[in-house]
Every structure is written in C-alpha cells, then in structure tokens.
Design goal:
The complex is a heterodimer of chains A (291) and B (513). Chain A has 291 residues and is mainly α. Chain A has 9 helices and 3 strands. Chain A has a two-stranded antiparallel sheet. Chain A is elongated and about 110 Å long. Chain B is built from 16 helices and 15 strands. Classes of the chains: A mainly alpha (291), B alpha+beta (513).
Chain lengths: 291, 513
C-alpha cells in the first residue's frame, strides 16, 4: 500500500503513516538475526517432517524415520508403569487379604490401585464415593447384605450377586403380590408391621395384628422372627435405619408386591486377581469394612 | 538505499573536524544535536536491519571502578555461594543455598521451604519488583547498568575481548585488515576464553541443585547425571550467545524492562544526562577556543565522541533519554577524562535530570528530590512485605494438619441410626526426627473417631506416627450418636506432639441431613 513517507522527528525512524488520536506508529525494522531465527525454525520443521509422522496421505500418513507412533508411545509408557509397579503387584498376588490390610505400605498401594478401578467399574451404580443409590447399596455404612469382611467383599466382587457364576448368593425377595401369594390387605398390613420393627411410626388404623401373623408365616423364614435378616440368604435386617429401597410405606409395599433382587455383575475374568484384591482393600477401607 | 539509513540519527551529518587521533573511517554512530532537517526518506523502508557492531572502548573513572566492584561481588556470589556450608544437623544437606528438587525442599541458610510454602516466593517477587521500581525512581536504570546478569557477563566478555583483540581502535583496524595467522589466533583465543567463562557459568548453575563438592567431583569423573551435563551445556550456550554475541540487543530487543521503565519513570529520577545547557553549542576544541575569544557563546562539548566510543550499547547520550541507554555511567567517566585534559569543569555528563537543566537555564539552583511520594511508597511496600515475610518465617511451625471432608457422600447413616462423616487428614512433620502425634477432635458430644487403614490405631490411643521431615495422609471416620444434629457443626482437629506438647489445629465441619 503506497502511503506518504513520514519520518518521526525524535527517533529519525520512518512511521507506518497511520495515526490514532495523534499517536503514530514507528516502522522500526526488525533485527536481521530475528529473520535468521525464523528461517532456522523452518529448517527445524523440515527435520520434524523427516523424523516424525507428518504429511497426510490418502489413507494414512508419512511414517517418519524414527517410526514413532502415539499409540506405541502409550503402550511403551504403560509397560514401563507395569514394570515399575511389578514388585508391588507381585506382593499383592502373594499376600492374603488380611496380610495386605495389615501391611501399611501394601494396603496404601492397594488403595491407590483400587481407586481408579472403582471409579471405572463400580461408580456407575455405587457412586464415585461409594455412597450408593436407591437399590444400589451404600458401601460406606455398616450394614452389609452379604457380609462386609474382606473375604465377603472379595467374593461379591468375583462372582457377583444373583449371577450364574455365584453359587451361594442367589436369594431373592419373592413377588408376594404379583404372584398371588398374599392378598392386598395382607401386604399392606405386613408392610406396616415391618416398619414398626425398625421403630417407624405407622398410621393409627394399621392392622398390626394381621401384619404380625403374615410376617411370621411369609417373612420370618428369611428375615428371621426378630426381623434381623439372614446374611446367607441376603435377606436384609429390617430393624435398623438402613433401607436399600427406602422406608416409606409405598416403597415397602412395592417391594412386597413385586419382589426385590438387584444384580451385581461378576468381575472375575474381567478384572485380574491383583486388581480384585486391590479393589477389595479399597472398598473395605471406604469406611464400612468389617473386621 | 543502504540499511543504515533506517536509523538516520546515526548518519554523520555535521560531525565537525575530526579530533586529534581520529578514528579509522568506519561507520561510527555520530549525531548532531540540531533538530531537523531530517534526511530524505528512502523509497522503501527496509524490513530488517543489520546489527551495527559495537566496539566499547576501555575507560577509567569512578563509575568504571564501581562497575568492576559490582562485577566482582555479583560474580563472586554466583560462583562461590554453592560452596558455602551450613550445618543443619543429621538427615539434612549442609549446603547453605540448595534447591533440592528430588526431595522437594529449598534451603537458604537458616530457612527451609517446603513446596506448600512457595507463597514465600510471592513476597520475594514483590520485594524484587518494588526494589527495581525504587531503583528506577531514584536513579533510573541502575539495575541495568550495574547489576543485571546480562550487563555483568557482557562486561566480562568485553574485557576479555579487549584483552585479546585489543582496545576499540586496534580491534577495528584488525577486523578491517587481512586474515593473518595472528588475527585468527587471537579470534580463536577469544572464543575459547568466552566458552570457558560460559562453561564455568553453567557449571556453577548446576551446583545450586545438588551438593556442590560431590557434584564437582562427579562432573570431573563423568559420574554426574546426564541432566547436569545437559544444563551446563544449555547455560554455556546461552551465556556464550547472550554475553558474547547478542549483548546490547538483549536490552534493546528482548528485555521488557526498558519499556516498563520508560512508563514508570518521572522527571525527578537521576538519569545519566548530557547537560546540554553547559555543553552546547558544541564544536572542536580549536573552533570553540576561537569563538570564546570573540565572546561568542560556546559549550564545553568538544564533540570528541569519547562518550559514544565507551558506550556498551552504542548510544549517543547527547541525544537525550534513550531506550538503549542502560545508565552505567561509563560515558561520564569518559567525558570527565576529556574535561580534565582540556581544563574544563567535570560532569558535563552526570546523573542529573532534564528538570535541573531547565532550572539552571532559568537561573535557579539544581534540585535533587530523592524523597518523594513514589520513592516513599515503594520503600513502604518493601518494608511492609519484608515485615510480613519475617513474621511468617518467625511464626513458622514444624507441625501442621490439614483436613479434607469427604464430599461424596457428605455423611453416611449407620444401621443404629447414628451419623458418620469421613475425612482425609494430612499431618506434616517438619522436624528431622520421627514424631508421634495424638489426635483429638473437639466440638462434638457423644462422638467417636476411628482411623482407617492405620494398623494398630485401634488400641484407643489414637496416635499417628509421622516420619522425619515427612507428611502422612490418614483416612478417618467420625461417628456421632447424638439424637439430633444441626446440618453443620464446626469441629476442630487438633494434633499434639506426644513428646514436646507442640500443637496444631485445623477446622472443619460435621455434616448431617
């Protein structure tokens, strides 16, 4: 763009000829070494083209002399990490769960290993903090449907709950209403009665006599005469403050009518043995683990 | 047009008769003070300017001596400080100044800084910035002229250059002459010496990051880690390039401080100033003597250009305040030497202000105002920051605790209806012995707490052992059996050193529905 040449009086340097509110811009030339540095960066980039993958081709790209690939780089990094963790993983495999829990170093390592595994695999149902949700047990409290000792947790993780793999953990809550085992008034009465076991106040018109009778016939077999549950059947304690599906009357009636029986997947085969051990220690130390 | 015309102020226009022992006819920056007329503009402004090589001439005088002294002190500190020992007892390094990256510690004599105390650095940076501003408010760019590493190393490299290739004139003549064996030998020797200084610079740098005597031995026997050699290489390269080759271009093109300084300065800052009230009209010594006899007004400046020849950045101070001027005062020494020779008063160039020049022209006395609002403000900020830092250092404790409340879930209801909160606590032990801390939680009635994953912590003692100079993270749960709880109850986590009774606290909350 041609413009009127204008020289700044103070510096003797030409200006760009533009002016903003009386301020003019000097057209100071760049130092020549800067130009050489710029050329140097271009030459440097040619080195990159030769050494690394760069130019796109129709279905791939140029490979580069170093044969470097981001996919291989991450595999290398992961292998290095595995090698670094190797001795500790080896100790995890060799030690029993009790030994791991007793060794502070090893249990710290197990917790660090277990946390990302928990977040990847368990958090969708049990929550990132293990706090659970309606139908998905809270892993931090002190009620465990199938046991909260290290071996119990490990078995739950390995074989799951109510899965084909699980030999023992198959017990379910029958659908008393839907399957016609109990009548509607019986279900309502037993729901009220059950809630009183946990100390929850019920409406004055509740037929607790009928409820007690129905409970003894239909429920006590699994939940026990006193309502404290049977862990081998996965039958929850009905007398405490923890209700997996909620303690309101409607939820209890819903459970009685349709039955309950949430499923936990089996992780043996999907997670390797050291990972299952690490995950067990992690879950056990969330706060609810039973010794 | 030649590139030189891009900077017309350096075109000799009316340099007057050359002084005795004139320079070889190399293009040397010369400027007349007369304002206009400006040179004819060329057709196209060049996009790139070649560097004008500068041959700073040797000079003697007050400011040169000051610069040598500063050079000796600053380089002395830089090269020798890593070897100063400081006894910290067992389990700690005995180096006075050490940046210990592998162990995450910074040692400075009696001060030990942990990574979480890096905020001390904020105070240091504030003090450094304010000290720079204060220097600038008092005497312009004295930092640039005397203390900046770029100035100090460039000065050293220039001295080596003058020593090997001769002073300004000899050096320029040699460069214009043929390629003799001697010239090649001198050039080679200069670069070898430069590289040795640069290498030593890099060598001293790495000593701040490891035990210096051990590292020196390892470096000499090629046992040192690769990264040490790498950093020596990097520092050697940068020192050689910046002090040997880039020199004043670092100041004029790369450094942001001249621009910031230009915006911060005021009319009372004592800058290196050509007293044009005394110097103008300039002229050759003979011409001026003749004019003086006729009673015509003459200045003291005899246009001998000594001030330009000694300038390490190649500026002409007689052009006034200048971006390139680092205010080292060497032109003052050069001019004083000439003034002594011609029997005129000293300090035609001096640390002065343009304001004083105007005052003298108006017949008023010169005025030096060092104490003024901005210097007081800068000094006050430095003092306050210093006091805060000293207080922080003096009140630094050797034990501390921090607490993070579990966020998901914030509370857990247990089977018996009680509530439980989870916390992750970290106990810091800044002493170099293993210590046992007793943990108490205050603020909750009818509550208990339990460590998780700390074997042996269930014996009711609630004691956590923390290794020497270490931290320990522990997960714990607090259970309240109170019948009813407010949504949030403030609680205090307190650790007590079982042996010494020293305490530290952290505040958190117990959450309920």
């Amino acid at each position: 763009m041609a413009h009127e040449r204008d020289i700044d009086a103070l510096t003797g340097t030409a200006t760009t000829g533009r002016e903003w509110d009386g301020i003019r811009e000097l057209n100071t030339p760049l130092p020549r070494w800067w130009l050489w540095l710029f050329y140097l960066t271009i030459i440097w980039s040619i080195g990159y083209w030769i050494a690394y993958p760069s130019w796109p081709l129709v279905s791939s790209s140029t490979v580069g002399l170093l044969n470097w690939q981001s996919r291989e780089a991450i595999i290398t990094d992961m292998d290095a990490l595995k090698a670094q963790r190797g001795p500790m993983v080896e100790r995890l495999l060799k030690s029993s769960l009790a030994e791991i829990a007793a060794d502070e170093n090893l249990s710290q390592f197990a917790r660090a290993q277990g946390r990302p595994v928990f977040l990847e695999n368990c958090a969708p149902c049990h929550g990132t903090g293990g706090g659970g949700a309606r139908g998905y047990p809270n892993l931090l409290d002190d009620e465990w449907l199938w046991g909260g000792r290290l071996e119990d947790i490990a078995l739950t993780i390995r074989d799951g709950i109510r899965t084909p793999q699980s030999k023992e953990r198959q017990g379910t809550m029958p659908a008393f209403g839907r399957d016609g085992i109990l009548k509607r008034p019986e279900i309502e009465a037993v729901a009220d009665y059950t809630r009183t076991l946990a100390g929850i106040a019920v409406e004055s018109g509740a037929n607790l006599e009928l409820g007690k009778k129905v409970y003894a016939e239909a429920c006590a077999n699994c939940h026990g005469a006193d309502g404290r549950g049977k862990r081998e059947l996965g039958a929850p304690n009905l007398t405490d403050a923890i209700w997996l599906y909620g303690s309101d009357r409607a939820s209890v009636i819903e459970g009685l009518w349709n039955g309950r029986g949430g499923m936990m997947p089996a992780w043996a085969g999907r997670l390797d043995e050291s990972t299952i051990k690490a995950l067990t220690i992690y879950v056990h130390t969330l706060g609810g683990g039973v010794r | 047009m030649s590139l030189a015309t891009a900077e017309p102020r350096h075109e000799p226009r009316d340099a007057g008769p050359a002084p005795a022992g004139a320079e070889p006819a190399v293009v040397v920056p010369v400027a007349g003070r007369s304002p206009s007329p400006l040179p004819e503009p060329d057709e196209e402004t060049p996009l790139y300017a070649a560097r004008r090589k500068i041959y700073p001439q040797a000079v003697h005088g007050t400011y040169r001596r000051t610069k040598w002294a500063m050079l000796a002190v600053t380089l002395g500190i830089y090269y020798l400080l890593p070897f100063v020992r400081w006894d910290r007892g067992p389990n700690a390094p005995s180096q006075a100044v050490l940046i210990d990256f592998p162990n995450h510690r910074f040692y400075f004599f009696f001060i030990e800084i942990w990574p979480q105390e890096v905020y001390y650095l904020t105070g240091l940076l504030i003090i450094a910035a304010m000290a720079l501003f204060l220097m600038n408010a008092v005497a312009g760019r004295v930092w640039c002229g005397y203390l900046c590493p770029q100035t100090v190393w460039t000065d050293l490299f220039c001295a080596i250059e003058r020593w090997v290739e001769g002073d300004r004139r000899e050096h320029m003549l040699r460069e214009r002459g043929p390629w003799t064996t001697e010239r090649v030998a001198r050039l080679g020797l200069k670069h070898v010496l430069w590289l040795m200084v640069a290498w030593w610079t890099g060598g001293a740098w790495v000593l701040y990051f490891a035990d210096a005597p051990t590292l020196v031995k390892d470096l000499a026997t090629f046992q040192a880690p690769f990264v040490a050699y790498l950093w020596i290489g990097i520092l050697t390269a940068t020192t050689y390039a910046l002090a040997g080759h880039m020199r004043e271009q670092v100041c004029t093109y790369m450094c942001p401080w001249p621009r910031i300084q230009a915006a911060l300065t005021d009319e009372h800052a004592l800058n290196v100033t050509y007293r044009y009230d005394r110097g103008e009209p300039r002229g050759s010594i003979k011409k001026n003597a003749a004019l003086r006899e006729q009673g015509a007004p003459v200045g003291d400046c005899i246009d001998c250009l000594q001030c330009v020849y000694v300038c390490p950045t190649g500026v002409d101070i007689r052009d006034g305040a200048n971006l390139g001027c680092i205010q080292c005062g060497l032109c003052i020494d050069a001019c004083d030497t000439v003034m002594t020779k011609i029997g005129r008063p000293l300090r035609l160039i001096a640390y002065d202000t343009d304001l004083n020049i105007k005052r003298r022209q108006e017949g008023r006395s010169a005025q030096v105002r060092i104490v003024r609002a901005r210097t007081l403000l800068y000094a006050a900020v430095i003092a306050v920051t210093g006091v805060v830092m000293l207080y922080a250092l003096a009140s630094r404790t050797t034990e501390s605790i921090s607490v993070i409340h579990d966020r998901n879930p914030v509370f857990v209801r247990l089977a018996d209806g009680s509530l439980r909160n989870g916390y992750t606590i970290r106990i810091v032990n800044k002493q170099r012995v293993t210590r046992e801390f007793a943990l108490d939680i205050r603020g909750l009635a009818n509550a208990s707490h339990e460590f998780i994953g700390v074997p042996g912590s269930t014996d009711g003692r609630r004691i956590v052992e923390v290794g020497p100079d270490q931290t320990r993270e522990v997960r714990m749960v607090v259970t309240s059996r109170a019948a009813s709880m407010p949504p949030s109850t403030p609680i205090v986590f307190q650790i007590t050193d079982v042996a010494s009774g020293l305490q530290a606290q952290a505040n958190d909350y117990f959450r309920a529905p």
